[in-house]
UniProtKB/TrEMBL annotation:
Keywords: Signal. This is Uncharacterized protein. Residues 1-23 form the signal peptide.
Length: 253
């Protein structure tokens, strides 16, 4: 006995077998890892994660990483073998949910740290996401290089008498918020911290800042003549290449 199938029945069977027109929710875990440091999470406001369709630029999901910065010993002080994990269930990340009908080439971006505008950088990668094939566990890990540098003194547009001298003070932390201290995990003595002082585009002087007893705090004193000045303070790690910058303007009268 011969079986007979109509064209509509065959077409429906084809769709059922391949499921290519049915959207499936697919999970992609995304994490932001500060270079030479830990994961960027709730303590510093998180990293903004954006997943886009690489072809159409449609945003498929977005949100902030949340959770802890992770285990210092595990991340920085433990030799790693293939498939060893850096994270646990509390480590910061963003669990994206993508509704896709077919294998989709996806752009993944991390903007971090999201609340520190002068320090924020964008790290990105691309990958194929297959419907129903979750990417969990460590997930996609994007490296975020740099330091967060905040000038604490002098204040923006502060008027200072030339006779008083200038106190330069900056707070410098890793991109995950981890503190910088002398002889610590992130050794303040390893970093070059300097102020470049300019006036109307011309460099006036360069001043080195030194670490203090207060974690992440660097200071120096200098003198300036009357005028308008831009102060740029930078941090540089010659070992890892991490850098960070902040700027302010003052008036000496």
């Amino acid at each position: 006995m011969k079986l007979r199938f109509s064209i509509p029945v065959l077409f429906c069977a084809f769709l059922f077998c391949f499921g290519s027109l049915v959207a499936q929710e697919t999970t992609v875990m995304v994490r932001a890892l500060a270079k030479d440091a830990k994961f960027i999470g709730s303590s510093i406001g998180g990293a903004k994660i954006i997943l886009r369709n690489a072809e159409t630029r449609e945003i498929l999901d977005q949100g902030l990483t949340s959770g802890s910065t992770g285990n210092t010993k595990l991340i920085l002080q433990t030799p790693k073998k293939r498939y060893d994990k850096l994270t646990d269930e509390t480590t910061a990340g963003f669990e994206a949910k993508l509704n896709i009908k077919e294998p989709t080439f996806v752009d993944v971006e991390a903007h971090a740290p999201v609340n520190k505008k002068q320090a924020k950088v964008i790290s990105s990668t691309q990958l194929w996401v297959i419907p129903g094939k979750d990417i969990t566990g460590e997930g996609v890990v994007l490296e975020i290089p740099g330091f967060v540098v905040d000038i604490l003194s002098p204040q923006t547009h502060e008027r200072i008498k030339a006779s008083n001298g200038i106190n330069l003070k900056a707070n410098i932390i890793m991109m995950c918020g981890c503190p910088v201290t002398e002889d610590g995990v992130w050794d303040a003595n390893q970093y070059e911290v300097k102020a470049i002082i300019t006036s109307e585009g011309s460099e006036i002087k360069e001043v080195s800042l030194n670490p203090t007893n207060k974690p992440s705090t660097f200071t120096a004193n200098t003198n300036l003549e009357k005028g308008y000045y831009t102060i740029t303070i930078y941090a540089f790690d010659p070992v890892t290449g991490n850098t960070g910058v902040d700027k302010t303007n003052i008036i000496i009268n």
